[in-house]
Specification:
The protein is mostly beta strands and 179 residues long. The chain is built from two helices and 14 strands.
C-alpha cells in the first residue's frame, strides 16, 4: 500500500535514496539545508541553504546488495503526487547542489527467460519542481536477458524524470528555466 501522507526528507549534506518510495502525498527531498533547518529543536526553521555541496542522489544497487549474490536486478522508483527537490518559500528558491539518477550499478547475471529491470525513475503524477545550483546527471545502466523458446523477455536500465508539469530551475550563473 502506498504511503498516504506528505513526506519531507531534509539533510545538510546529501540525500541518498537506494530503495523505492511509493506514496499518494507530496514528497520533498531537501539536500543542502542549513543547520537550523535540520536541527530537531527548531522544526519550523525557515529554509536556507547551507552553502555546501548537498545533492539528491538516486542510484540502483548491485544485485548482491539485496541477495548476497547474482540475481535479478531491482528498479529504484520514486513515485508521488508532487515532487520537489530543494524548496521554495515565499517565492525564494532554496536549491540543492545537484541531482544524480544512476542505474549503472546492477551486475545481474542473465538467466534464460528472466527479465532484468534496473531503472531509476523519479515520477510525479502532478508537479515536479527541481531547484538546483549544480548539474543534473542521468546515467542509464546495462542489463541483459536471454529469451527462451517462444517467450519474449524485455530488459531495461533507464534513468528518467517524469511529471505532468516539470519545472527545472537552475540557480547558478547559467540560470535557465525549462518547463
Amino acid at each position: 500500500e502506498k504511503f498516504d501522507h506528505d513526506l519531507k526528507i531534509v539533510a545538510s549534506g546529501d540525500v541518498v535514496v537506494k530503495g523505492g518510495v511509493y506514496m499518494t502525498g507530496d514528497l520533498t527531498l531537501r539536500a543542502n539545508a542549513s543547520a537550523a533547518e535540520v536541527n530537531s529543536s527548531t522544526p519550523n526553521a525557515t529554509p536556507q541553504n547551507s552553502g555546501g555541496t548537498g545533492k539528491v542522489i538516486l542510484e540502483t544497487q548491485p544485485t548482491s546488495y539485496y541477495t548476497g549474490g547474482p540475481a535479478t536486478s531491482f528498479p529504484l522508483e520514486i513515485k508521488a503526487k508532487n515532487i520537489t527537490l530543494g524548496t521554495k518559500v515565499g517565492g525564494v528558491a532554496q536549491p540543492i547542489a545537484g541531482l544524480v539518477l544512476s542505474s549503472a550499478k546492477p551486475t545481474a547475471v542473465s538467466t534464460t527467460g528472466v527479465a532484468q529491470r534496473a531503472d531509476v525513475v523519479l515520477e510525479a503524477t502532478g508537479a515536479m519542481e527541481i531547484y538546483t545550483t549544480g548539474d543534473i546527471n542521468l546515467t542509464a545502466g546495462d542489463v541483459s536477458a536471454v529469451s527462451s523458446a517462444g517467450k519474449v523477455v524485455k530488459s531495461t536500465a533507464v534513468a528518467a524524470i517524469i511529471g505532468e508539469n516539470v519545472t527545472i530551475k537552475s540557480m547558478g550563473s547559467r540560470s535557465e528555466e525549462h518547463t
